[in-house]
Structure formats: C-alpha cells, structure tokens
Amino acid sequence: MKIKTKIILFLVVLCFLHSCTEKDFEGPSIEILYGDFELIEQFKLTNKNPSFLINEKVGFHCEFNKPVEWKITIQGLSTNAKKEIAGFSSLIDSNSIVWSGGPSQVPFFSEESCAIALTFENEIDTLRDTIIIVSAKSYENGIWVENFENGVPSDGLINYNTDGGGMTFSVSNDDPLLGNSYFKMGGRVNWDWALGSLDLPIDIDSVISQAADDLYINIGILSDLQDLHTGQFINILISEETSVYFNDNPNNNTSEIFESTMEVYKMKVPVDWDGWQIKSFKYSDFEPRDPTSPGVIFDKDPNNIRAIRIACQACPSTGVQENCPENLGKDVRTDIDHIIFTVNSALLDQ
C-alpha cells in the first residue's frame, strides 16, 4: 500500500513539473524582466494641435521590451494645468491611451503650449514632446448646470444665520472657477453647526435615462489654508420628493422638500484645501439622509430628482455643542461654482 502511494505521489510531481516547462511559459522571460530597459518604438502623438472644443483627442503611442510602470504628464505652460495618465504595460496604445483636454484637477487648460513627458518607474529615461492647444475644452456639456453667471436663479432660495459674523451668502466675481461669477458661502457662527444653505430646483426628468450609478454630481469648491477652520464641510442634499412643491411656503427662505420624512439623499464633503477643486460624486454613492424614516422608500431614481441643497456647516467652537474649541473666531469658507450633472463619467474625465 505504501509503495502504491509513493508511486502516485511521484506521478503527480512529474505531471506538475511537466506543466511548468519552458514550452508552456507565458509572458516575458526572466532575462527580459530583469534585463535592461529598451525602447522598441518611439514616443508618438497622434495630434500635435488639438481642438478640444470640437472633441478632438490626443493619442499616445510607445512600445518597450518589457512591462513597466509608466506615466505621461501634460503640463500647461501658461496656466500650469496638469494631466497625468499612468499604467503598467509594454505598449502604450494610441487607440486606448488618449487625452480629451481636461486636467486631473483645476486649473483648466487654455489655448496654450503644453510640455509632455513620458517617464518610467526605476528608469532614468524621460521622453518628451510638445503640443499646442488650438481651442480649449468646454465644461458646459451637462444635463443641468448652475454657474451663477446671471446671479442666483430667481427661484433659488438662500438661507443663513443672520446672527453670524462676516456672512457671505451672495454672488461674487473676484475669483470665479469658470466664467465671471461664483457663489460665496461662509462666515462665522461659533456656536452652531449650520451657517446657511442654497436651495435650487432641478428639472431633468425629460432629459435623463441613466441609472443612479451613471449620474455624476460635480461641483467646484473654493477654500484657503489661511487660518483654516479645520471642522468646515458642505452637505450636498438631493431631494426626490414629488408630492410637495419646491417653495411650498413662500414665507421662509428654504425649500420644503428636504424634510426628514421625505426621500432625500446626502453627501458630506470636508473642505480642507487651498484654492478651487472640482469634486465629483456618483449619485449611487449618496446615502439616505434619514434611512429609518417610516414609510419612505429609498429607491434612488434620477428621474425623480427635484432639487439640490448645498449646506455650509462647521464644527462649533463654543456653546453647548462645543466640539472644536481650537477654531474659535475662525471664518468658514466653502464657496461654490459650476454645479453640473453629467452622465457616464465625472466632469474632468469627459
């Protein structure tokens, strides 16, 4: 019995070794993987003068002798805008590795010259090229946009704590993200979480067919690091209430369709950076504001979206709710611009 067992084990080992022969080996050899890096085909661009405004793209091509970690960096020489594209492969294929004119984060590219560099992890080689942007990409192609170029919409509702100090809930034009205007949201309310909010009605049911996983809410947010209030954030609320009017009670400055008894979803966004940033969120990632609210079915249907609320909030630094005493006397700044709904991808990925 022991002899039979040994014979069987020997045959199993023999079969295993046979399956690992050089004949069946897939991928590059050890010599190539650990050998010197070599360029097989030069770095090439498919378009040196792109017009992104008419949806032209730039494709990138290059081939190496082995898979490597690579990164393409595009730098605007006037705006200092930057886009990075990275991957791991032995081939950069211009059919799939393309740039449509957007940055990885603001600032945006303009009509300008751009320096392009292809670098490789653990390699000293850097391949370079340049392009000239003939026309810059537009960021107005959403299914719903609010950019405050004509002020706050006439049916928009602004509400803020009038007992606070330095409250700035109004349109300004000194530092917009895009265009000429933006909405300032901030001030100083040391004793409470809520500073104020902006409510805007939305009508997209006739132009959208995507599911919640394919709808993106994008918003530009401005702050600064000078004497930063470390507990500041905004809450983005989306209402799917269909039975109550947006401004059902004209005697107050807030919409009635964000109540705890309604189908409302939220996203909390801590604001802790310097300058403008665009933040993008899938609608499917929003959470019910009050998930235990009796009788409310949270089935998240983009066709039922009726309004958005942008609420400026901060951790109290004094009073009965004191949680952040280190922020006493500090102003909150969560300014916003260019709220835009896009489908299938975030704004900067389009």
Question: How would you characterize this protein structure?
Answer:
A hairpin with a 5-residue loop joins strand 2 (58-76) and strand 3 (82-92). The protein has helices at 2-19, 30-33; strands at 39-45, 58-76, 82-92, 98-99, 113-120, 126-132, 144-146, 157-160, 170-172, 182-184, 186-187, 194-201, 215-223, 232-239, 264-270, 275-282, 287-288, 307-314, 332-333, 335-343. It is mostly beta strands and 350 residues long. 6% of the residues lie in helices and 37% in strands. The mean pLDDT is 91. The radius of gyration is 27 Å and the shape is elongated. The protein has two domains: 30-132, Immunoglobulin-like (Sandwich); 144-349, Sandwich (Jelly Rolls), CATH 2.60.120.260. The longest helix is centred in the N-terminal third of the chain and has 18 residues, at 2-19. Strands 1, 2, 3, 4, 5 and 6 form a six-stranded antiparallel sheet that branches. The protein contains two helices and 20 strands.
The arrangement of helices and strands along the chain is HHEEEEEEEEEEEEEEEEEEEE
Low-confidence stretches: none
Q: In terms of structural class, how would the helical and strand content be classed?
A: mainly beta
Number of strands: 20
- Based on CA inertia axes, which overall geometry fits? elongated
Q: What is the CATH C-level name of the largest domain?
A: Mainly Beta
Distance between the termini: 68 Å
Q: What's the rounded overall pLDDT mean?
A: 91
Q: Any idea of the CATH topology of the largest domain?
A: Jelly Rolls
Strand content: 35-45%
Instruction: Identify the CATH homologous superfamily of the largest domain.
Output: Galactose-binding domain-like
Helix content: under 10%
Major sheet: size, sense and barrel closure?
A: 6 strands, antiparallel
CATH architectural type of the largest domain: Sandwich
Using only C-alpha atoms, the radius of gyration works out to 27 Å
H/I helix tally: 2
Number of domains: 2
